[in-house]
């Protein structure tokens, strides 16, 4: 019957108190390995492997065999895996009297790299001894992760609320279009960036008759339909703002050609003249439009552009409504536009 040494009698309990241990036989091969160590070394079977083929001893260096390892009795060891993630390991070695000769017990830990090791090797608290401070670090890490995740969710909710509040502050509640505040913000940005743009002042014709004849509910419905129709004719980056009961300002980024603005004005008027049904009643409106172009001004003055667009709008209404006028910046163009429409 094989004689069991006192040291060997103690080995079965090592899995629980030292889950990252390795028992080395007289030849330096691993005859027993803790469950966590076996989990870390996934490239090959741990038991039966030569310890120095799995681990590179960084400090003390130049250890090549079992005799060299036994000479490190009680010394602090620094090592790393020869394959796989190059984590630093701490360790301590103690000689063992085994039935086959002089062996050794090596107990390993991750030290301060435990967090990275947990991530890379998929470890949990069950992979460490109950008394290992690594479990405390894991609990702290889990608590920190939970706190950070909750903080992230809170920040997302706050940011969402902020964006929603800002959007609400910049939105006309009836039509969903931009409001005067949003318009001023966009105009200021466009001017500061030196962008070309067209500014159009649109006023609904015969809208008062709709309110007087069919009531304010019908008027609100017409305004909502008008908003949808205008949005269907412009680009996503263009801006439509409701600035009065039936008044709108439209901004067209990058538009600097009179003919294009005139064509767009005609299409808007035609679209808005289509009848609007509301609870069996047919509501009819039209639109008058005045516009101007940023490129007509040597030094852009938003106040002057608004005045010029308003004057063009008044000229459109004076011409019989349902038409447009563009401020052109010179007398010849003004005469041409008075003859248009």
Structure description:
The chain has 341 residues and is an alpha+beta fold. It has three domains: 125 residues, 2-Layer Sandwich (Beta-Lactamase), CATH 3.30.450; 38 residues; 159 residues, Alpha-Beta Plaits (2-Layer Sandwich). 43% of the residues lie in helices and 22% in strands. The strands form three sheets. Strands 2-1-6-5-4-3 form a six-stranded antiparallel beta sheet. A five-stranded mixed beta sheet has the order 8-9-7-12-13, with helices on both faces. It has a two-stranded antiparallel sheet with strand order 10-11. The termini are far apart. The C terminus is likely disordered.
Task: Provide keyphrases for this structure.
341 residues; alpha+beta; Beta-Lactamase; Alpha-Beta Plaits; 6-stranded antiparallel beta sheet; 5-stranded mixed beta sheet; 13 helices; rod-shaped; disordered C terminus
Quick overview of this protein structure:
Residues 332-341 have low confidence and may be disordered.
Task: Indicate the low-confidence ranges by residue numbers.
Answer: 332-341
Radius of gyration, rounded?
41 Å
- For the residues shown, what is the average pLDDT? 84
What kind of assembly state do the chains in view correspond to?
single chain
How many angstroms does the end-to-end distance come to? Answer: 116 Å
The CATH architecture of the largest domain would be: 2-Layer Sandwich
Let me know the CATH homologous superfamily of the largest domain: Reverse transcriptase/Diguanylate cyclase domain
How much of the sequence lies in strands comes to 15-25%
Provide the CATH top-level class of the largest domain: Alpha Beta
Main sheet attributes: strand count, strand direction, barrel closure: 6 strands, antiparallel
CATH-defined topology of the largest domain: Alpha-Beta Plaits
Count the domains: 3
Count of DSSP-assigned helices: 13
Order of helices and strands: HHEEHHEHEEEHHHEHHEEHEEEHEH
Spatially, the strands of the biggest sheet line up as 2-1-6-5-4-3
Silhouette: rod-shaped
Give the strand tally: 13
């Amino acid at each position: 019957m094989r004689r069991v040494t006192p040291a060997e009698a103690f080995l079965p309990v090592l899995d629980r108190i030292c889950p990252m241990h390795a028992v080395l036989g007289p030849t330096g091969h691993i005859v027993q390995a803790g469950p966590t160590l076996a989990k870390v070394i996934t490239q090959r079977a741990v038991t039966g492997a030569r310890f120095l083929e799995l681990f590179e001893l960084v400090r003390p260096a130049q250890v090549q065999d079992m005799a060299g390892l036994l000479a490190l009795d009680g010394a602090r060891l620094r090592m790393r895996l020869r394959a796989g993630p190059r984590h630093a390991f701490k360790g301590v070695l103690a000689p063992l009297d085994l039935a086959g000769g002089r062996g050794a017990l090596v107990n390993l830990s991750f030290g301060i790299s435990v967090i990275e090791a947990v991530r890379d090797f998929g470890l949990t608290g069950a992979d460490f001894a109950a008394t290992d401070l690594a479990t405390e670090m894991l609990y702290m890490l889990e608590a920190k992760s939970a706190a950070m995740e909750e903080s992230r969710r809170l920040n997302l909710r706050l940011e969402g609320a902020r964006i929603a509040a800002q959007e609400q502050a910049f939105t006309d509640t009836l039509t969903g279009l931009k409001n005067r505040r949003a318009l001023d913000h966009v105009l200021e940005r466009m001017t500061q960036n030196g962008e070309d743009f067209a500014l159009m002042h649109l006023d609904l014709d015969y809208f008062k008759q709709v309110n007087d004849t069919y009531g304010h509910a019908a008027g609100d419905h017409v305004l909502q339909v008008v908003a949808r129709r205008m949005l269907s004719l412009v680009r996503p980056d263009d801006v439509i703002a409701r600035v009065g009961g039936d008044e709108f300002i439209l901004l067209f980024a990058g538009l600097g050609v009179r003919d294009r603005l005139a064509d767009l004005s005609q299409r808007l008027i035609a679209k808005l003249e289509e009848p609007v049904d509301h609870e069996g009643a047919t509501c009819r409106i039209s639109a008058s439009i005045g516009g101007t172009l940023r490129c007509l001004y040597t030094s852009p003055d938003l106040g002057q552009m608004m005045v010029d667009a308003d004057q063009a709008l008044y000229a459109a209404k004076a011409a019989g409504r349902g038409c447009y006028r563009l401020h052109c910046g010179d007398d010849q163009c003004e005469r041409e536009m008075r003859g248009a429409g």
